[in-house]
Amino acid sequence: MRAAQHTHSGAHEWLDKIDRDYGMQFWILQLFGWTGVAVFTFLSLTLYYNTIYWQHIVHTILQSIIGLAVTLPLRWIFKALWQKNVALRIFVTAMAVVAGATVWTLLRMIAFMWLDHKENLLSTEFGGWFYPSFFIFSCWAALYYSIKLYQERQAQLVFSLRLDADRREEHLKRLEAETTAKEAQLKMLRYQLNPHFLFNTLNAISALVHLKENSKAREMLVRLSEFLRFSLANDPKLQTSLEQELHALTLYLQIEQARFADRLSVRVEVTPEARRSAVPSLLLQPLIENAVKYGIANKEDGGEIKIQGFVAKGVLTIVVADDGPGFSSVEQTTSGRGVGLRNTRERLHLLYGEESKLDMRNREAGGAQVKLRIPHVLFSEC
């Protein structure tokens, strides 16, 4: 709302400036036009008839000044008529021109009689003075409307261009702000994820050290360092191929398998086309972590995690399932199991909006299943 108000405010400021400029142009044209009338009158009457007297010269200047003054009310009338219908505008304009020409004729004839000491000109020569006055005022009205129409179209064009420029500027600022906010959210989700995973892994290493299984603890530390190196090398707002994502999962699962030994098995069924798909980096790690934590860790005899991936109708579908106890009724109606699924859902929404979908349900054969769908795009290294 504020951006829209700012945009319209900026455009209206430009329109006000244009109005001021056009007001200045009106006065320049007025002075130039009535000066031209004085010069033309001097050349065509005073010089032509060889009546170069100071009275005639003063009258020539004075009648232009009077004409300029008389046309000012016409400007106010014509401005008021500008938005009216054409018939009313023509009628009132004609009446205003006749009235203006009549007033100008009377005033300049009175001035001439006063300067030249003439009498009874109004009754004998009014018609001869009125016709050129009517012609001049008609031309003035025609020029006013022509220039007014041109100025209005120019003002509309400038207003439209300025409004579009302001809108584009506001749009770019909004996109920049949204991009910054989105990157900050993605980084926040990444920072939430790493401590969560580290906490579980370091607890497992601590337990192995406590049990004096030092070789397993060292093995887990090596795998943890490899996984973290891979994690830190991948920007969460960038994409990777599902093939590389599965490689990262292998590093993670090797850490978990060191904890669970033969209690954890993994089955991967991903089509070649799906493996070449572009996905957000480390997208599946929290899903696998939840499957291990809630599906495998609570079973004495362990269990299996199944990863499926396929492409159909331009959509990449990835399924992570386990054969554990499944989701509780509360988990199925809320955001899911802890930070992992919540972060995954938010990342998908930030990156794909309504084009992404994440579903949670219990499997008929037992266990939990998380299915996510995103637009299928082939990954490119460039």
UniProtKB/TrEMBL annotation:
Gene3D superfamilies: Histidine kinase-like ATPase, C-terminal domain. The chain crosses the membrane at residues 26-49, 61-78, 90-114, 126-147. Residues 283-378 form the Histidine kinase domain. It comes from the Bacteria. Keywords: Coiled coil, Membrane, Transmembrane, Transmembrane helix. GO terms for molecular function: phosphorelay sensor kinase activity. It holds the Pfam family His_kinase. One of its GO terms (cellular component) is membrane. SMART domains: HATPase_c. InterPro entries: Bact_2-comp_sensor_kinase, HATPase_C_sf, HATPase_dom, His_kinase_dom, Sig_transdc_His_kin_internal. Residues 165-192 form a coiled coil. This is Signal transduction ATPase, FimS family. It comes from Teredinibacter turnerae (strain ATCC 39867 / T7901).
